[in-house]
Specification:
Strand content: under 5%
Largest sheet: none
Order of helices and strands: HHHHHHHHHHHHHHHHH
Shape: globular
Number of domains: 1
CATH class: Mainly Alpha
């Protein structure tokens, strides 16, 4: 029997959910972050513990969001939960913030993909921005073919990405001799002064325990950012054939898979690279590959990096249009964005999203895009956990096929982490954080305009 035209199709399963969670998480961050973490902590065992704790934080978030997704199986992501808990105004602000974060993040990732492509093929007669625009156009065309094509491309890219990293891990364990005990000896954390240096005259510096705590905070902040993306399945909630079962499995299973991959990667790096070399490296996997395969190792890692960011682009171009679709369906955005193709793609929302991403690629500034996207993403996590608490209190009768394990403690940990990140960002990078807040504030006039242009403010679709 054919699916009805003009509606989202409920044809997705756990395989797509896992591919979305893994594909939306593993990207360029894992190529750089291990060196930064090693420099801060200075111990192989501390490095592995930190990656485990960062993954545990992501797992707690997935457990909390799994309850929301199973209870409110509507496509659109965070805006669905914010609107149910706080009303239309907050729902629009969260949706606008989410969509902006996706657009800024994809613009940055697409530019990065262009740089990787040029590193692999330096004779290409194109610049990185032109390559980024071509990639956006390619994935937009794929999504216009329908949700089957989009989900299929996500499965292939996520599988290829995972296999590439696992093959590198296997090579590190099978082809390399482990580093010697001396080379693996602990280093003083980056936040502590070298023990061999005499104490400086004048006021005493911070206590050693405080400096060590600061090193752990910086390391965990970087790690948690590398785990970002596990929430991707929630944007397709009603497109799962059995969302009450498939969404929790996708979210929790996806985070567990990423934890395993990240721990294996870091264990492999610690086997191949002396700790001092790992701490000094900006691209540890490239250095490890060079030791294993010689000069071709760098090209190999560049290819893996390109594959990783392609998966991120595909995930976001799949997800972001569903945010606009969800807003329009509730009468919070222009009704045209509710139009869905026969293949199940929100076509108008997709074209609007791809156009915004292309404009950011052409006119956006790389560091600003990254900083703004990071701030917006963490703010969204906070809104989701806050919605969980409010709905538990306000709607105790809501059917909850999955209950968040460890609630309320699990939710409080994630909420505290989100707030700490946002406060730290405001203190350390005030300019970019304020720019992100200004973009969020722009939601108010847009909300007013969209409601005025909507016939009567009623939902534009079912």
């Amino acid at each position: 029997m054919s699916e009805p035209r003009g509606r989202l199709l409920n044809i997705l399963g756990v395989a797509f959910g896992l591919a979305g969670a893994v594909g939306g998480t593993i990207g360029g961050g894992i190529l750089r972050t291990p060196g930064l973490v090693a420099a801060e902590l200075g111990s192989g065992s501390a490095v592995l513990l930190a990656w485990f704790l960062g993954g545990l934080y992501g797992l707690l978030g997935a457990i909390c969001v799994a309850e929301l997704g199973a209870s409110l199986p509507r496509s659109g992501g965070w805006t669905v939960y914010a609107r149910r808990a706080f009303g239309d105004g907050v729902g629009f602000v969260v949706g606008w913030t989410d969509w902006l974060g996706h657009c800024a993040g994809v613009a940055w990732v697409a530019l990065t993909a262009g740089d990787y492509a040029l590193a692999l093929l330096p004779d290409l007669p194109l610049g990185s921005k032109a390559i980024a625009l071509l990639l956006l156009a390619l994935f937009t065309v794929i999504q216009l073919q329908g949700v089957r094509a989009g989900s299929g491309s996500q499965l292939l890219l996520s599988l290829a990405k995972t296999l590439a990293f696992l093959l590198l891990v296997g090579a590190c364990f099978l082809l390399a001799d482990p580093v010697t005990a001396t080379a693996a000896a602990p280093l003083p954390p980056a936040s502590l002064p070298p023990a061999s240096l005499p104490a400086a005259a004048g006021p005493a510096g911070p206590p050693a325990w405080l400096a060590l705590a600061a090193a752990w905070v910086l390391a965990l902040q970087a790690i948690i950012g590398t785990y970002d993306g596990w929430h991707s399945p929630i944007y397709f909630a009603e497109e799962f054939s059995e969302p009450a079962r498939d969404l929790p499995r996708s979210l929790i299973g996806g985070v567990l898979a990423v934890i395993a991959i990240y721990l294996l990667i870091n264990a492999a790096l610690l086997r191949v690279l002396p700790l001092a070399d790992l701490a000094a490296s900006t691209l540890p996997l490239a250095d490890a590959a060079e030791r294993l395969f010689g000069a071709v190792g760098g090209q190999l890692i560049t290819a893996v990096a390109l594959l990783s960011v392609l998966g991120l682009i595909n995930t976001s171009i799949l997800s972001a249009p569903r945010v606009l679709y969800a807003l329009a369906r509730e009468g919070l955005f222009f009704p045209a964005a509710t139009q869905v193709s026969e293949g199940g793609t929100p076509a108008v929302a997709l074209l609007l999203t791809s156009g915004a991403m292309a404009l950011l690629v052409v006119f956006g500034d790389f560091p600003i895009l990254l900083a703004i996207a990071s701030f917006l993403y963490v703010a969204l996590y906070g809104s989701g956990i806050a919605a969980l608490f409010v709905l538990r209190w306000r709607e105790p009768q809501l059917e909850r096929p999955f209950l968040a394990w460890g609630h309320p403690l699990s939710g409080l940990i994630v909420l505290a982490g989100s707030l700490a990140f946002l406060v730290g960002a405001l203190l350390e990078d005030r300019a970019h954080s304020l720019e992100a807040l200004a973009l969020v504030a722009a939601a108010a006039p847009l909300h007013w305009l969209s409601r005025r242009l909507t016939a009567d403010g009623s939902p534009a679709g079912s």
